[in-house]
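Subject: Acyl-[acyl-carrier-protein] hydrolase

B.,
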Amino acid sequence: MASFSYTIPLPLRCSTGSNNQDPKKQNLNKIKITGTPTRSVKVDILSQTAVAVTTSVASVENGHISKELIRQNIPTKKQFVDYHRQGLIVEDDVVYRQTVVIRSYEVGADKTATLESILNLLQETALNHVWMSGLLSNGFGATHGMVKNNLIWVVSRMQVQVDQYPIWGEIVEIDTWVGASGKNGMRRDWLIRSQATGHVFARATSTWVMMNENTRRLSKMPEEVRAEISPWFIEKQAIQEDVPEKISKLDSKAKYVNSNLKPKRSDLDMNQHVNNVKYVRWMLETIPDQFLESQQLSGIILEYRRECGSSNTVQSLCEPDEDGILNSALNQNNDMSPLNRFSLASEIMEGNGLIGSLDNVPLKYTHLLQTQGETQNEEIVRGKTIWKKKQSNIELSNMPFPI
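Prediction pasted inline below.
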């Protein structure tokens, strides 16, 4: 495999003021790191402020650089600043931080970001982290060693906790980093916070394993791949889990069922399998509308079992976790004063309903996505969603934020 270099001209914005400093250096000085101690950011000043940037391309097709590689401009060396994506490498040069403005198409009718938008931002920042590392090959987030061994990343488990959803036009910072998960896995975590206040909106953690792209079987991590990614590993967790919660399997007698779901072309990834965000959409579509009107998703746990292809027909099942609701109520009841315990019991006894009497107690649903086969159904994803009562705009405006 040959290596070539090419030059891409970068436009410079001229200033009409009296300051004769290089505008690139001015922009560099304006970079602000929020939430971390003051420290110098390692930046290759020459490469960031030059009028032209020379990039080395790692693969050539028939002696010519492909148009795709020129358009993508994938770096082959570790980068510390990405102006186009508003990204920085921070915290011992291993954590990726990206500044994002919540767009109008990423929010719902209440002007708050949707869970699907949150999940899409998690995926985007994870891929940009690999991009900045200089390890990205032609694969979708795969390193050079992975492509050499026909390996791809697949997620086996994901958990997201949402304290509050950002709103339209709000500026948020997303941090993401990686760590080891056993001998052959990798953990990736995220933090989403307000740039203005530092308030943490959401936390997420995930576990990834490697799969052979041709055989579709899980694979051990080759030593050359471990050597590529292990320098980026840190011991830091966004969500502390002593023992990960196991999700029980639902049967066909689940309370709510949505059948004959078919993936669309837009739902597929580059490997022609369903995008992970689509799984969450199918799960939420099965929950009754009356419940969604008063409740807001505050957490989700996903356990991935198998792939779902474009030819599969999917069935979505969900069941309210009534035992979990009752246990939560009893635990909260034990912490209450005798007067409050009496009030809670009275509400239930008077028939006001469990949900009506437990506005502050998280409600849970168990989910299952499975393929609909002629002889048997096969699990795709098991899920658990945690819900809390929606807060009004007045309640949100009065919330205290740490500065």
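The mean pLDDT is 78.

T.
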